[in-house]
Write a structure and sequence with these properties.
three-stranded antiparallel sheet
Length: 106
């Protein structure tokens, strides 16, 4: 992954509404959620949902699949894992350690 793609995905997730949408889709699993169900679950207007979903789709974090008249949204787990890996891969690389110490942050 390159830094521009990572920055774009992190920027997309930096919006509260988009993060709520993305978390709902991650929780939904491989089956995803129909747009209507996602709208009901998050209690947001359809136009707002559509606007935010477009940004998540454009960055590759969400995939949409039309099944007849229903639009199903699914988290793109490959892209999610690539983003997480990009952040973790070089953890503590300049210190020569095996990784960060586990620390609980409230």
């Amino acid at each position: 992954m390159n830094i521009e793609k990572a920055a774009s995905q992190l920027e997309a997730l930096g919006n509260v509404t988009r993060l709520q949408i993305y978390r709902a889709l991650v929780r939904a699993g491989e089956e995803g959620l129909p747009v209507g169900r996602l709208q009901e679950k998050l209690e947001i207007p359809g136009s707002t949902l559509s606007h935010h979903l477009k940004r998540l789709v454009d960055t590759g974090l969400v995939v949409q699949d039309r099944q007849a008249t229903t639009l199903i949204c699914t988290a793109n787990y490959n892209h999610m894992n690539a983003l997480i890996g990009y952040l973790v891969d070089e953890c503590c690389a300049d210190q020569g350690c095996d990784g960060p110490r586990t620390r609980v942050v409230a």
